[in-house]
Structures are given as C-alpha cells and as structure tokens.
Design a protein that fits this description.
The chain has 208 residues and is an alpha/beta fold. It has helices at 21-24, 30-43, 103-119, 136-145, 162-168, 184-189, 197-207, and strands spanning 3-7, 13-18, 123-126, 153-157, 174-178, 192-196. It is elongated, with a radius of gyration of 27 Å.
C-alpha cells in the first residue's frame, strides 16, 4: 500500500499517510489516459463554426447573362462559390466533437494519473489546509512552506471552500478544484497536486 509523508500547512511533516492502492497504486494505462484527454479536450470545443452556402448568401438568383452569344463563359448565378461574395462550397457546419469514453475508462485514466503523481513524488498530502480569511498572501506563504512557490500546482479540496478559492485565484499557475470536478486534463496539466486528507478519502470513496 503506497505511503506518503503527511504535512501541515507550515511545511512540517506530522506523520505518514497510507493511500488506497486501488486508486493510487494501479498500473498506469497510457493509451486510456491519452484517449480520455483527447475526449475531454474535444468536448470543450464549441462546434459553432459556420459558413454560408450559395443558398444562404445575399444576392439575386437571376441568371447573370444569356447562355449563348456573349462570348463569355456560361454562368447560372451570382451566388455560385467562384464569384466574389458567393457562397462557400465546402465550408464548416455546426457539429458536436464529443467522443465517447466508457465510465470505467475515465475512472482508470484518473487513477493512472494519480498513481503517476505518486510515483514521481509530486503528490503532497496536507493535514489541515484551513485559512481563516481570504488573503492571497496567506496562500502564497503556504505554498512557499511546501516548496511549491512558482510551481504549477493543483489544489484539490473535499468540498467548496470560498476562502481557499479566493486566496488562490490570483496566484499564477495555481488552481483549486473540488473532488467532484476531478478530471484527467487538470491532473496532467499541473506539475504538482496538493490534497487534504479529507480530499484523499473523498476520492478513494468514489474511485476505489
């Protein structure tokens, strides 16, 4: 069973913390992780791109000139794609980019990402992460004590904490996330993961 050092918010080790190997000690499945990341990024695309076809652009449908006898090439409409101001022949249309990923695969991807952070020594467990009032200065001090100042850090909380959120939101490369919103992209996008004991237990209850 994986075991990590347990720190308080001043950066002092106060003990050890055992992790559930079913969540933090699985075999890392790279293909599933990749598929889940691609699917998440694809789902974030709006898919609202659109160009007008020859049937949608403004303009007369009248034939520009008679078919024969002018010496010019025959034309049927000013709205044809080869005319300036004409419609687009093969332009983009609104579509959904959503890719299907099974629930088991999504869970395995998250567990693989958490396991990789444990193996790399980039998962930090904090005993008590409470801050009395929303001050960026306080959060900066906490991160500095944990040797995370200036590093890309994701803070995972067991539930919504307005004080912690406001304290961290103005710090570059730092993001707070509740366990319910845990996702593969954020886990991989941030170099270090900081979790409270309660957050670890909440994640284990869902994923184990």
């Amino acid at each position: 069973m994986p075991k990590l050092a347990l720190y308080n918010k001043t950066g002092s080790q106060v003990g050890d913390f055992e992790l559930d190997e079913r969540v933090f000690g699985v075999d890392v499945n790279v293909p599933v992780v990749h598929r889940s990341v691609v699917a998440q990024l694809a789902a974030m695309r709006a898919g609202t791109h659109k160009t007008k076809t020859r049937g949608e652009v403004t303009g007369s449908g009248k034939k520009p000139w008679r078919q024969k006898g002018t010496g010019r090439a025959r034309q049927g409409s000013f709205r044809a794609p080869h005319w300036v101001g004409g419609g687009n022949a093969f332009g983009p249309t609104p579509r959904s980019y959503v890719q299907k990923v099974n629930k088991k695969e999504k869970r395995l991807a998250v567990k693989s990402a958490l396991t990789s952070k444990v193996e790399e020594g980039k998962l930090i467990i904090v005993d008590d992460f409470q801050i009395t009032e929303p001050k960026t200065k306080e959060m900066v001090k906490v991160l500095k004590d944990l040797n995370l100042k200036g590093k890309k850090t994701l803070i995972i909380l067991p539930g919504k904490d307005e004080v912690l959120y406001k304290s961290a939101r103005n710090i570059p490369n730092v993001k707070t996330l509740v366990t319910q919103a845990l996702n593969i992209y954020d886990l991989l996008n941030y170099e270090y993961i900081v979790m409270s004991k309660d957050a670890v237990k909440a994640v284990e209850e869902v994923l184990a």
